[in-house]
Design a protein that fits this description.
- This is Succinate dehydrogenase [ubiquinone] iron-sulfur subunit, mitochondrial.
- Belongs to the succinate dehydrogenase/fumarate reductase iron-sulfur protein family.
- It is a peripheral membrane protein.
- With 340 residues, the chain is α+β, with helices and mostly antiparallel strands.
- It has two domains: 101 residues, Beta-grasp domain (Ubiquitin-like (UB roll)), CATH 3.10.20; 151 residues, Alpha-helical ferredoxin (Fumarate Reductase Iron-sulfur Protein, Chain B, domain 2, Orthogonal Bundle), CATH 1.10.1060.10.
- The chain is 39% helix and 12% strand.
- The chain has twelve helices and nine strands.
- A hairpin with a 2-residue loop joins strand 3 and strand 4.
- About 4% of the residues have low confidence.
């Protein structure tokens, strides 16, 4: 009987030892560092414990950050409201409060959030959301901005108005017909010389050197957002008078200078003659509000100064480095079969 008891005790002890080792190795096997290993040293085990402790600390830190983020940050916007269809012809400022933690960082994102969640009657223009189309121009806290490029200030109340001194159609939407008509008067398209007239559309193209093309940098980037013209005091006073005695505005004059500088254009003198009216160019007082608010960082004031030098014949258009034209190859970028 004594031998049998000793055997039973040895069996129980061996089972306990086996189970303890089994739990030990199964716990280590869960760690990614030891997935492909079977035997471990003491140093490796301590290293694994440190890594586990570090991971738990990082998890705690992320949880604390998430808790901080969950704390709402309320922001108030006062938005200009005007709807002639309601019968109330007086505009008003309406307040909206949103949580900017649940909103993307731009003014346009806040407007879209308000329209989606609070007031579907709010009207404004938008298209590309990348600062390319120029359709979301508004006045934010007294300064003309593109709503898609201007960030929300986390503190204080933000006031949003339509572009100043423009006829308001509804809320933040203004009438751009006069502005675009003035732009069309500067003939924003190339007028070739008589000897360089193109036979048919798409058959020939005009040559231009890289150096001559660089002269138009800072002019061709205009997106016609009207932020510059509607920030100009002279445009407020004389921009809406009857043509031709109206000030064309910084945007139109910037584009006029862009076509005068273009070496491929052959109607330089004709364009200058169209701008000899005193009100078209010389009403600019170089206040340079247009330059300070331009979302593309252009310099309309400098372009107007250059136009004056050309009109006064202090400056002439230099001869181009390259002239003439070459046959156009519309299928150079892609084969004809693929394009069709």
């Amino acid at each position: 009987m004594s031998i049998l008891r000793k055997l039973l005790r040895a069996l129980v002890v061996s089972i306990h030892i086996f189970l303890s080792y089994y739990h030990y190795f199964s716990h280590l096997h869960k760690k990614t560092y030891f997935q492909q290993r079977r035997f471990f040293s003491v140093t490796e085990f301590k290293y694994a414990q440190k890594q586990e402790d570090k991971g738990t600390k990082e998890d705690k830190d992320t949880k604390k950050k998430d808790e901080k983020k969950k704390v709402p940050r309320m922001k108030t916007f006062k938005i200009y409201r005007f709807d002639p269809e309601t019968g109330n012809k007086k505009p008003k400022m309406q307040s909206y409060t949103i949580d900017i933690n649940d909103c993307r960082p731009m003014i346009l994102d806040a407007l879209m959030k308000i329209k989606t969640e609070q007031d579907s009657t709010l009207s404004f223009r938008k298209s590309c959301r990348e600062g390319i189309c120029g359709s979301c121009g508004v006045n934010v806290d007294g300064i003309n901005r593109l709503a898609c490029l201007h960030k929300i200030r986390p503190r204080g109340t933000t006031k949003i108005y339509p572009l100043p001194h423009m006829y308001v159609i509804k809320d933040l939407i203004v009438d751009m017909n006069k502005f675009l008509a003035q732009h069309s008067r500067i003939k924003p398209y190339p007028i070739p010389k008589q000897e360089h007239c193109v036979k048919a559309e798409g058959e020939e193209q005009f040559l231009q050197s890289i150096k001559d093309r660089e002269k138009m940098d800072g002019l061709v980037e205009c997106i016609l957002c009207a932020c510059c013209s509607t920030s100009c005091p002279e445009y407020w006073w004389h921009g809406h008078t009857k043509a031709p005695n109206d000030f064309l505005g910084p945007a139109a004059l910037l584009n006029a200078y862009r076509w005068i500088v273009d070496t491929r254009d052959g109607a330089t003198q004709e364009r200058l003659n169209d701008l000899k009216n005193y009100y078209n160019v010389y009403r600019c007082h170089q206040i340079n509000n247009c330059t300070s608010v331009c979302p593309k960082r252009l310099e309309p004031g400098r372009a107007i100064a250059q136009l004056r030098l050309h009109l006064a014949r202090f400056k002439k258009k230099p001869k181009p480095d390259m002239e003439g034209k070459v046959p156009a190859d519309p299928y150079k970028a892609c084969p004809k079969d693929e394009c069709e």
